[in-house]
Every structure is written in structure tokens, then in C-alpha cells.
Design a protein that fits this description.
This protein is mostly beta strands. It folds into three domains: about 1-95, Sandwich (Immunoglobulin-like); about 165-385, Pectate Lyase C-like, CATH 2.160.20; about 400-500, Jelly Rolls. About 5% of the residues lie in helices and about 50% in strands. Strands 8-9-12-15-18-21-24-27-29-31-33-34-41-36-39 form a 15-stranded mixed sheet, with helices on one face. The longest helix is centred in the N-terminal third of the chain and has 7 residues, at about 105-110.
């Protein structure tokens, strides 16, 4: 939230709100933007919106007051099963006497972090920290008597409070377990550092935590260390980090470590952040209720490494990110998770689950992946080419086992019309007995039965003989006769139009 001072005692709150949802015909989004009266609701004079992940443009059909918070109803959302991010900017007008003030408050006005409110009673949920002139013993966290450390401000703050931090470096080890917002007054001016062989400057275990500082660093270079440790323990966690450079010095270190409790809901957002580690920039043991999202982030040096607990349904999303010097490792046992890559650049994507695969990978138009490695059987990958054109793939299908393999299930209210099918044999020449088809035979067939002569080492473009699969129908790759070659695997790619 930012406040813009206006004349004649009127100021305007400017809220930027993001919401993530699976697609559907409509979505009702309950925001965290407070609405105190009908007049405030009527002052919502403009809402800007866009989608940044796989999906189509949306529009707002209505706004309402939902128990004191703004509710937004949108239509024409993304296709079902695809995560989309909706970004709203909302203006609310209020009556209050304001001026620009001086000192910290002057900085707040200039940098859009506050409104220059001259009434300290209006700031009872706000704490100010200044490492140069603050005092943890005699300060009270007000504008004129700031505290000296972020940790002291956090200890005194109630859940839901705001902590504004003046420029400087703060050597602190913070453990955060309640709703809190920590924001620098001057963009890029605050560094939180702590030299530790384990958790480092920031540990978050629960609550809704929003941090915007210029840098978080754990400079320890001797053993495995973290700059940010996200470890839920008996409480749900929503963690957001914005506009931050995260660094660690150890050769076996990680910028962020995620150790999620299977019983808790964990949502993690990184926005416009840079991660620079000696070894693995991200490592996580993700559980079924975990969502990790990267928006306009850059990963330097080495990998993003996510391991998944058995049977989980976690989700990781990358939008407009650069991971050009490392790779993302996405694997674990019995993977039911979803990986979204939207308009990002990756040096390598390595999919290495060890059990049954029921999740999939989304790759959006504009994504660039230099190396794509799949080391487990029947890995679904959905590639969006823009508009209504999709390519549904199944990697590493055992050609020496007779079985029907589901490539894609068409969502309700949609049709899929395939027009191109490719099979890829990248492992070894198939045996003479191999025979397969796509979606059975006769009128229900997309590709009629194909014999071994057409499936030698390399890529084969098949002839499509049927061009539509109705809602709730399945796209199936059916191996009807085994190849007689052990460790013989095929990839299948089906490209077409997904329409409603």
C-alpha cells in the first residue's frame, strides 16, 4: 500500500493486490484491501488487471464489500487446471488532515511508503526503526523516538503491524511467527545480515509475513548455511519477499531452505529478487499444501533444487525469471506436483521423480529452456504456444510394455482438436514388434496403429486421422505390442487447439 497526499484534507490509498487461482469461467477474489464504508467502496474508481501466467486477459465484472474487505469478481479466466496470477491496482479516497512532515515521515512521503500523517494516534499499528539514532531501551517505536533494531520492533509489535526501517545495515537474527510487514523507507537502502552456520538472518515459521528490504545476507563461508529458513511448525505460513538481493557465502549453502510441515498450508512469493549462492540457491522439501512462486527473479550461479515428499501435490511457478547459470531440479517420490515455467530462461530443467507421476509441467509461450532432462516414466508436460494452441506431451513412455498411457484429460466445457502428433525415440532402435496408436482405432483414433518401421531412432511425424476430443475425453498413447527391447522409451507430443 502507498499513500498519495492530496489537497484539502484528502489522501488516496493505492493498493497493489495479487491473487493466484486455477482457471474457470469466473473467479471471486477476496482481497486484503480494507473497505470501511459504502463511500469508500464507491471511491474505487479504477481497477487495473492483467494475467502473467498461462491464461487469457480478464475483466472485472463487479466489486463488493465482503465483511470489511474488497471483493472482486472477474470473468474470462484461464483454462481449468492452469494457474494464473491476477494483479489489481485499486485507489481509495479518504478524508484526513495530512502534511509532508519531516525526518523519517518526510522520507515516507517521498518514497510512497506512507502518507505523511501528522497524527501519531493514527500510527498505533506502525513501528519505526533507525539503527543510527534509535534506542531499544528509551525508544517507543514512534516517528520521533524510533527503536534501534528490527527484532525489538517485532517483539513489541502486535500481529498485523507494520515495521518501517531507516537506511543502514542491521546485523540481526530474526525469527518470525506472526503476521508482520517489514519495509525499508528508502528503496534498496536496508541490509539485514547475520553470520551463522545454519539459519541466518531470517527464519519464518508461521503467520503472514511481508518483507521488502534491499539485501539479506548470511556471509558464513565455512559450512552449509541459509539466508532465509522457512520451516513451518504447527502454523500456516504466507511469506512474501520483494525487491531483495539474497546472498550466502558457503560452498554448501542455500539462499532459501524450505522444510514444510505436511499438515500446514505454505504460500511463498519472491518478487523481483536476486539469489546468489555458492551451491544451491533454493532447496526445498515441499509438501502437499506448498506453493512457491517466483516473479521477475534472477537465480545466479547454481541450481534451484526442490525435493518432494511422497505423494505430495506442491506447486512451483516461475514468471519472467532468469536462471541462466544453473538448473532447476524437480523431483521426489510419487510426484503429484505442478511446475509452471512462464516466459523465463533456464539453463537446464531436470525432472527426476522416482515414483508414480500424477502432476505435470506447464511451459508457457516465451519460455526458453536450453536443456530439458526427464529421468522418470510417464512425465506429462503441457506447452502453451500462445492463444488456443497447446502441445500435450508424455515423456519416457516404456515402449517395451503393453499399456494405455493417458497424455491429457480435456477439461469440462472444452474441446481439444489435435492437428500434429510426433513420436520421439531418443534411446535406442525399437524392436520389430512395436505397435502403438493414439486414442484407439476407427472414428475415435487420432493416430491409427503404427508399426515398428515408422519408429526408429529419432523423430517421427505421424498422420492425424481424427481431429477433436470432447470435454472430459482423454488423449491416450496406447502401446499395443511391446518393442522387445529393454529400456526402450518413447516421447509423444500432441499439438492442437484447446477451445470452448
Amino acid at each position: 500500500m502507498a499513500l498519495t497526499v492530496r489537497k484539502q484534507g484528502i489522501y488516496t490509498e493505492v493498493w497493489d493486490e495479487e491473487s493466484w487461482h486455477d482457471g474457470g469461467a469466473t473467479q471471486t477474489i477476496d482481497t486484503t484491501i480494507p473497505i470501511k464504508s459504502a463511500e469508500e467502496l464507491n471511491s474505487v474508481w479504477k481497477v487495473l488487471e492483467r494475467t502473467d501466467v498461462i491464461g487469457e486477459p480478464v475483466f472485472v465484472s463487479s466489486v463488493a464489500n465482503n465483511n470489511g474487505y474488497l471483493r472482486i469478481v472477474i470473468e474470462n479466466t484461464a483454462a481449468p487446471g492452469n494457474m494464473a496470477k491476477y494483479v489489481f491496482r485499486v485507489w481509495l479516497e479518504h478524508s484526513m488532515q495530512c502534511d509532508t512532515g519531516s525526518g523519517i515521515m518526510g522520507m515516507l512521503v517521498v518514497n510512497g511508503q506512507g502518507g505523511g500523517i501528522n497524527d501519531t494516534a493514527a500510527l498505533t499499528d506502525t513501528w519505526f526503526v533507525d539503527g543510527t539514532r534509535g534506542d531499544d531501551t528509551n525508544g517507543d517505536g514512534s516517528l520521533n523516538r524510533p527503536l534501534a533494531t528490527i527484532g525489538e520492533a517485532y517483539d513489541q509489535a502486535a500481529a498485523g503491524d507494520y515495521i518501517f526501517v531507516a537506511p543502514g545495515e542491521y546485523e540481526e537474527e530474526l525469527t518470525l511467527a506472526k503476521d508482520i510487514t517489514i519495509a525499508e523507507i528508502v528503496p534498496g537502502s536496508v541490509k539485514i545480515s547475520f553470520d551463522s552456520d545454519s539459519s541466518g538472518p531470517i527464519t519464518a515459521t508461521g503467520g503472514t509475513i511481508d518483507i521488502e528490504v534491499g539485501e539479506i545476507e548470511n556471509a558464513n563461508n565455512n559450512v552449509a548455511a541459509f539466508a532465509i529458513d522457512l520451516a513451518t511448525s504447527g502454523a500456516d505460513l504466507t511469506f512474501t519477499l520483494k525487491n531483495c538481493d539474497v546472498t550466502v557465502g558457503g560452498t554448501s549453502s542455500a539462499c532459501v531452505d524450505i522444510a514444510d510441515d505436511a499438515a500446514q498450508v505454505t504460500t511463498i512469493d519472491f518478487k523481483s529478487c536476486t539469489f546468489n549462492a555458492g551451491d544451491v540457491n533454493m532447496q526445498g522439501l515441499l509438501d502437499a499444501t506448498t506453493q512457491v512462486r517466483f516473479d521477475k527473479c534472477e537465480v545466479l550461479n547454481d541450481a534451484v533444487d526442490f525435493r518432494l515428499r511422497s505423494g505430495v501435490a506442491a506447486r512451483a511457478t516461475f514468471i519472467d525469471c532468469l536462471c541462466g547459470l544453473g538448473s532447476i531440479y524437480w523431483g521426489g517420490a510419487d510426484e503429484a506436483s505442478i511446475l509452471d515455467i512462464g516466459a523465463s530462461v533456464f539453463d537446464d530443467v531436470n525432472l527426476s521423480a522416482t515414483g508414480t507421476i500424477t502432476g505435470h509441467v506447464n511451459i508457457a509461450a516465451g519460455a526458453q529452456v536450453a536443456t530439458f532432462s526427464v529421468n522418470q516414466n510417464n512425465q506429462p508436460v503441457w506447452i502453451w504456444h500462445g492463444g488456443e494452441v497447446w502441445e500435450f506431451c508424455l515423456y519416457h513412455v516404456d515402449a517395451n510394455g503393453v499399456a494405455a498411457h493417458t497424455v491429457y484429460t480435456v477439461p469440462a466445457s472444452y474441446n481439444f482438436s489435435p492437428y500434429e502428433v510426433r513420436t520421439v525415440n531418443r534411446y535406442q532402435v525399437t524392436g520389430a514388434a512395436l505397435n502403438y496408436r493414439v486414442n484407439g482405432t476407427g472414428n475415435g483414433s487420432v493416430v491409427a496403429a503404427v508399426g515398428a518401421a515408422a519408429v526408429q531412432l529419432g523423430v517421427v511425424n505421424e498422420t492425424v486421422v481424427q481431429d477433436n476430443i470432447v470435454a472430459a475425453g482423454t488423449l491416450v498413447f496406447d502401446v499395443t505390442a511391446a518393442s522387445t527391447q529393454a529400456s526402450d522409451y518413447l516421447d509423444v507430443h500432441v499439438k492442437g487447439v484447446l477451445w470452448d
